[in-house]
């Protein structure tokens, strides 16, 4: 059996040392460490979680959200799951996000895997991620009205019919191309060293 | 490009010459990119996914991966039913290994309830999960091999999967949508002659695997199509949140069964195959070798299968035996309460992950103390792996798309939920 190298208490201590000022609440729930972070501290906190050698949370497992409706003061709560592959410890990061300005900073710069996850949260909850390179809907179609996993979206909600789209014009990779790809041509002529695959 | 040097070129017709700029690498003939759409219903993409590729000749210069064609609102539906009624929905996540999804959900709710399934139930879960894992890998590898022209391999693998599904059918009564998990245990015990049957089936499966190994692993065509294609280094794989065979193929030894043992996995001896390069061939090898390890786990579990109950003895979690329901007032009330209101975990939220066929299959559940989940979320490995598709495809050939997509093993139900 692989032992957890770091116990939850040790982790909590390491966390308090390296980014204690960014944490507004920390608790051990059902054996897992759960911390709460203010939205404007989020990206700084996650960066430190990833880069501080004492923490080394190098894998972003999941991003999701919870809609608390009226039962809490702040309506939304983002939930990040982090994992450290070196010490096999997990961390849950919760971020309250208000309904009036549902926007936090994107972490795509830190983890490319956040791209799809943040798109899903935007699609399902309507929480925006500033700095996301390509914040489109992902599971729903572009014309979908509303955000289905919000509690005020009815389970049997009906959607208006959408107009016929012309796939060739609207939905090509070229039109969907993200800004980071504009350099694709120079990449091609500079020899495919990063694209030897 | 530097200063323009013009060349005199003999056109070869009657001494006519023309001047032109010398060609340089990357400065080829007048060409422009072409948009090629694949899917959502393409014969080579087993699953409803749309990949819009921008091609320059045969090279993919851009790709847009569009998922969501099989979205059924799993998470929204979970909020409307009680905890045990979610079971049939989880079957339809990764429908190639539904048992693992069932048990993943059960484990999550058990963690929330702070209970543990009895030892025997845990062992039965391990046996069925590992059988499912083998069938998951068989489907993935068989379909991928077929798309690369190895049709025989697909037939062998389907036959092996058929044997395993017979075994699952023996216990669960169903082949695909098994709904076998229950919060606190499993639905049924193993059948009396299960161990014997398993021996026969495993022998058959191993024979098929030997054949497939001979047909694929050193097959020149197969290697050429797989090797050095869609390479993701360990750092890139971690950066893209990959787990399961995709991450292990890149050389990172992370398996939820070893790192965070659940369901008594710590009591079994098995190895975690790890690749080195992170290309498609490594992913293939990891999956192929994992199958043997899974069979090993099953054999150990069946040899040491403990006696005892298969579900917790708690009337608030598991249905009481029928003779109590019919013959005692307490039994009747408990039965009624559980059927009408369901399991009621305390308030709180929990994340729990199991090792699914494709990687870390996590469930995040929020309970508000009522009988229904306030919020249920699946961390679907397929979905996250599809996020790395574009990175793997850029610079590859169109023909590389097929094995890459095969090795990602995107399962529509799990990816789109």
Number of helices of chain A: 5
Structural class of chain A, please?
Answer: alpha/beta
Q: Trace the largest sheet of chain A across and list its strands.
A: 1-2-5-4-3
> What's the CATH first level of chain A?
Alpha Beta
List low-pLDDT spans of chain A: 177-197
CATH architecture of the largest domain in chain B: Orthogonal Bundle
Largest sheet of chain B: 3 strands, antiparallel
Percent of residues in helices of chain B comes to 40-55%
Quick check: average pLDDT of chain B? 86
Shape of chain B: globular
Number of domains of chain B: 2
How far is the first residue's CA from the last residue's CA of chain A? 37 Å
Strand content of chain B: 5-15%
Which fold name is given in CATH as the topology of the largest domain in chain B? Cytochrome-c3 Hydrogenase, chain B
Order of helices and strands of chain A: HEEHEEEEHEHH
Order of helices and strands of chain B: EEEEEHHHHHEEHHHHHHHHEEEHHHH
Main-sheet strand order of chain B equals 3-4-5
- Please report the total strand number of chain B as a whole number: 10
The count of β-strands of chain A is 7
What is the element layout, followed by pairings?
The complex is a heterodimer of chains A (197) and B (417).
Chain A lengths: L7 H12 L3 E7 L2 E6 L4 H10 L7 E9 L8 E9 L4 E9 L5 E3 L8 H12 L2 E3 L36 H4 L13 H6 L8
Chain B lengths: L6 E4 L6 E4 L13 E5 L11 E7 L2 E8 L7 H5 L8 H5 L6 H16 L5 H29 L3 H22 L8 E2 L2 E2 L7 H23 L3 H7 L7 H6 L4 H6 L6 H4 L20 H24 L18 H6 L1 H13 L6 E8 L4 E8 L5 E7 L1 H6 L2 H5 L4 H11 L3 H5 L1
Antiparallel strand pairs in B: 1-2, 3-4, 4-5, 6-7, 8-9, 9-10
Helix pairs in contact in B: 3-4, 4-5, 4-11, 4-16, 5-6, 6-11
């Amino acid at each position: 059996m692989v032992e957890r190298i770091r116990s939850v208490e040790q982790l909590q201590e390491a966390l308090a040392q390296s980014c204690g000022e960014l944490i507004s609440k920390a608790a051990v729930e059902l054996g897992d460490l759960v911390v709460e972070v203010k939205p404007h501290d989020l990206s700084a906190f996650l960066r430190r979680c990833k880069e501080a050698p004492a923490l080394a949370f190098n894998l972003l497992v999941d991003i999701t959200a919870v809609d608390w409706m009226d039962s809490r003061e702040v309506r939304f709560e983002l939930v990040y799951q982090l994992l450290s592959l070196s010490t096999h410890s997990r961390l849950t990061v919760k971020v309250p996000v208000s309904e009036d300005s549902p926007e936090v900073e994107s972490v795509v710069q830190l983890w490319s895997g956040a791209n799809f996850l943040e798109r899903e949260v935007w699609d399902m909850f309507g929480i925006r991620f500033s700095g996301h390179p390509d914040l489109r809907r992902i599971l729903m179609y572009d014309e979908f009205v509303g955000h289905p996993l919000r509690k005020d979206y009815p389970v049997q909600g009906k959607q208006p019919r959408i107009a016929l789209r012309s796939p060739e014009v609207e939905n090509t990779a070229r039109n969907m191309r993200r800004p980071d790809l504009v350099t694709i041509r120079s990449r091609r002529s500079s020899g495919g060293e990063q694209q030897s695959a | 490009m530097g200063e323009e040097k013009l060349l005199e070129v003999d056109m070869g017709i009657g001494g006519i010459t023309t001047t032109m700029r010398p060609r340089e690498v990357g400065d080829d003939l007048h060409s422009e990119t072409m948009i090629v759409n694949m899917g959502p219903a393409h014969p080579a993409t087993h699953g409803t996914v749309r990949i819009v590729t921008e091609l320059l000749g045969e090279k993919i210069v851009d790709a847009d991966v569009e998922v969501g064609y099989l979205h059924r609102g799993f998470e929204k539906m979970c909020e409307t039913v009680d905890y045990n009624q979610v079971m049939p929905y989880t079957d339809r996540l990764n429908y190639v290994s539904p048992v693992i999804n069932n048990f993943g959900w059960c484990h999550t709710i058990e963690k929330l309830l702070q209970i543990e399934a009895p030892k025997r139930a845990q062992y039965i879960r391990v046996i069925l999960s590992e059988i499912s894992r083998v069938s998951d890998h068989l489907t993935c590898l068989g379909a991928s091999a077929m798309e690369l022209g190895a049709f025989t391999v697909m037939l062998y693998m389907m036959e092996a999967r058929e044997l395993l599904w017979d075994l699952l059918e023996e216990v669960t009564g169903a082949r695909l949508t098994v709904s076998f998990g229950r919060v606190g245990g499993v639905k049924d015990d193993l059948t009396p002659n299960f161990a014997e049957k398993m021996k026969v089936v495993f022998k058959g499966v191993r024979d098929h695997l030997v054949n497939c190994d001979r047909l694929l692993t050193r097959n020149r065509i197969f290697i050429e199509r797989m090797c050095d294609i869609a390479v993701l280094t360990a750092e890139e794989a971690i950066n893209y949140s990959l787990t399961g065979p995709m991450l292990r193929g890149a050389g990172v030894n992370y398996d939820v069964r070893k790192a965070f043992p659940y369901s008594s996995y710590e009591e079994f001896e098995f190895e975690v195959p790890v690749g080195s390069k992170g290309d498609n061939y490594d992913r293939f090898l990891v999956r192929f070798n994992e199958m043997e390890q899974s069979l090993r786990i099953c054999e150990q579990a069946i040899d040491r299968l403990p006696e005892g109950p298969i579900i917790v003895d708690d009337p608030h979690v598991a249905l009481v035996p029928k003779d109590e329901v019919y013959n005692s007032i307490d039994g009747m009330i408990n039965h009624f309460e559980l059927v009408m209101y369901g399991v009621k975990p305390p308030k709180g939220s929990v994340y729990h992950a199991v090792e699914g066929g494709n990687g870390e299959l996590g469930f995040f559940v929020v309970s508000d103390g009522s009988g229904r989940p306030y919020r249920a979320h699946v961390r679907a490995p397929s979905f996250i792996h599809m996020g790395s598709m574009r990175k793997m495809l850029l610079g590859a050939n169109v023909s590389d798309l097929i094995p890459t997509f095969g090795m990602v093993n995107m399962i529509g139900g799990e990816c789109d939920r």
